[in-house]
Amino acid sequence: AGKVIKSGITSGYSAIDAHLYHAGWGRKELSCIMGPAKSGKSLSLGDFCKNATLAGYNVLYVSLEVAHEIIAGLIDAALSDTMIKDLHKNPADVRDEILRASDPSRGAGIFKMQTRASGTMKPSHLRAMIEKYRADGINFDLIAVDYADIMAAEHRSDDLRENLRTIYIDLRALAHEYNVAMLT
């Protein structure tokens, strides 16, 4: 019909989505957030995942660096419009806001978070994780790995560049195989 249907998974920011080919993170693609240490990459990944979940997408966030309590705290603070340092002051109010925001009847998707030790998770471990959720009836639209550079290669080599190359190729293959947007 001469129209291209944009099928991206939203970042939650129209200004970002407008610059992405699919008007969001593309399915079957691997997108990389790059920046120097302590520039907010993990914070951004968590925020993009939260936004996609609120938009109705099912999301898996796998952290290999930041403890899940920290990422969960950041997301809880954003969902409840509470400063991180104040999350403990009114935990019942924070919980109620999170439950309200994440209510499937309001269109929210499923958000799952996993943490693994740096350098121990291989792409095959991620595949097993995805399959376990699929067996439970959960299919993801977006998978975030924080971050691919500290994954383990399936077949370790003495060449760091080769290890990284194979990790990124394997993540892209998983994105394609499971029809998900992969973010790292």
Element layout with pairings:
Elements: H1 14-17, E1 29-31, H2 41-54, E2 59-63, H3 68-80, H4 91-101, E3 111-115, H5 123-135, E4 142-146, H6 160-178, E5 181-183
Parallel strand pairs: 1-5, 2-3, 2-4, 4-5
Helix pairs in contact: 2-3, 3-4
Structure description:
- With 184 residues, the chain is of the alpha/beta class.
- Helices cover 40% and strands 11% of the residues.
- It has six helices and five strands; from the N terminus they run αβαβααβαβαβ.
- It has a five-stranded parallel sheet with strand order 1-5-4-2-3.
Which labels suit this protein?
single chain, 184 residues, alpha/beta, globular
Major sheet summary line: 5 strands, parallel
Strand order of the largest sheet: 1-5-4-2-3
Count the strands? 5
Structural class: alpha/beta
Distance between the termini: 34 Å
Rounded mean pLDDT score:
90
In the predicted model, the low-confidence regions spanning at least 5 consecutive residues are none
User: Rough shape?
Assistant: globular
**Total number of helices:** 6
Strand content: 5-15%
Question: How much is the radius of gyration in Å?
Answer: 17 Å
SSE order:
HEHEHHEHEHE
Helix content: 40-55%
What would a concise description of this structure say?
With 184 residues, this protein is of the alpha/beta class. It contains 6 helices and 5 strands, in the order αβαβααβαβαβ. It is 40% helix and 11% strand.
